[in-house]
Amino acid sequence: MRIPFIAGNWKMFKTKKEAKEFAEEFRTLYKDTDVRTAICAPFTQLDTLKEAFAGTSIGVGAQNVHFEDEGAFTGEISLPMLKEIGVDYCVIGHSERRQYFNETDETVNLKLKKLLNESDIVPILCVGENLEQREAGSEKEIVEGQIRADLAGISADKVASMVIAYEPIWAIGTGKTATPEQAGEMCAVIRGIIEELYDEDTCDRVIIQYGGSVKPENATEIMNMDEIDGALVGGASLIPQKFMDIINF
Ligand SMILES: O=C(CO)COP(=O)(O)O
């Protein structure tokens, strides 16, 4: 039985002050539910959120990590640094990182291994095709290629503990949501790939989220799809009431 998991991805939004204000309001709205919840925030807001959500079941996630422990990597953040803050999740391979910051399947794979082998931080691996690939009908092939490369050399029990987010790039921040059927179909494809690469148990356990213009108005329909276990929410996670309405889908 997979527990629904709704995570917010704040991207590069909110200062410390704004994060504190969000957390105060969100705590007053938040009631313990059967839904797992987390906010993935900019690095400088992680400790603020950990403190603000202490004593609640709201998780806190980072949006990236380096695969080395330390070194001359200007601008990067390491796993020991994240562990010290006590973060619960880490987004890996978001399409914006792949597109603007040279993230490749190879670095995604190294980062996943780092997290899974050396911490309890749960990776949220993002995969998804762009518009051109969708229009060419090659989305399944693209996503399969990403998953095979990103998970290379990672064992079944580790994969079973992860979260995979299917985020079609054409639906991110565009207001264009994949239809629940399109989203469900691709999440089913991903589950099928996991079964083929691993086994039935791993495929039954891995959490698969959909991400791309999820909002209170479409959350129920999306969450009602059999193969979708949750959502990775960008814009709508910046507003406490909207994010809460999605959690209460
Ligand atoms: O990229 C996303 C979450 O990681 C989706 O962003 P939006 O919900 O703003 O489309």
UniProtKB/TrEMBL annotation:
| Major subcellular location class | cytoplasm
Does Transferase show up as a keyword for this record?
Answer: no
Q: Which residues act catalytically here?
A: 94, 167
GO biological process annotation, one example: glyceraldehyde-3-phosphate biosynthetic process
Which keywords has UniProt assigned to this entry? Cytoplasm, Gluconeogenesis, Glycolysis, Isomerase
The reply to whether Cytoplasm figures as a keyword in the UniProt entry is yes
Primary enzyme class = isomerase
Gene Ontology molecular function, alphabetical: triose-phosphate isomerase activity
Classification via Pfam families: TIM
| E.C. number(s) listed in UniProt | 5.3.1.1
Q: Which CDD domains match?
A: TIM (cd00311)
Q: Kindly list the positions annotated as binding substrate.
A: 9-11, 173, 213, 234-235
Q: GO cellular component terms?
A: cytosol
Instruction: From the UniProt record, give the pathway where this protein acts.
Output: Carbohydrate biosynthesis; gluconeogenesis; Carbohydrate degradation; glycolysis; D-glyceraldehyde 3-phosphate from glycerone phosphate: step 1/1
* Reaction catalysis annotation: D-glyceraldehyde 3-phosphate = dihydroxyacetone phosphate
Compartments, record wording:
Cytoplasm
- PANTHER family, per the entry: TRIOSEPHOSPHATE ISOMERASE
Indicate the quaternary assembly: Homodimer.
Explain the purpose of this protein: Involved in the gluconeogenesis. Catalyzes stereospecifically the conversion of dihydroxyacetone phosphate (DHAP) to D-glyceraldehyde-3-phosphate (G3P).
Which family does the entry's similarity section mention? Belongs to the triosephosphate isomerase family.
- Please report the name of this protein according to its UniProt entry: Triosephosphate isomerase
User: What organism is recorded for this protein?
Assistant: Hornefia butyriciproducens
